[in-house]
Amino acid sequence: MATTKELIEQINHLFTENKLESFMDYFAEDIVWDMYSASGHTTFNGIAEINQMDGSNVAQHSNFRFSTIVIEGDMASVQGSSTTTKKDGTQYESNFCDIYHFKNDKIVKMSSYVVDNIK
For residues 14 and 8, is the Cβ–Cβ distance under 8 A? Predict the structure, then answer.
């Protein structure tokens, strides 16, 4: 089994390489993912629901920068920012904080908080 620090390093590496599909390999089948943003709150229960997510506005490329990582037991918090080029060519910048709960090297619960950078 990997340590929580090793898991977060692997996950962050996938984000910097824009390998988001590989990131999903870390999800437990029954993962609960809460997403909070200016557009509201969404909860996905299980991989099946996440796979049904509307990907019409998914970015073509994102640049992630990680600033603060806190690890406590089987939990980790990752704070950072991202710059994204959307499919329509527009630029999008945000700050985020993801909180991970691991069990047996899989993410069983995740909370994502995203704040848009408005210029």
Answer: no
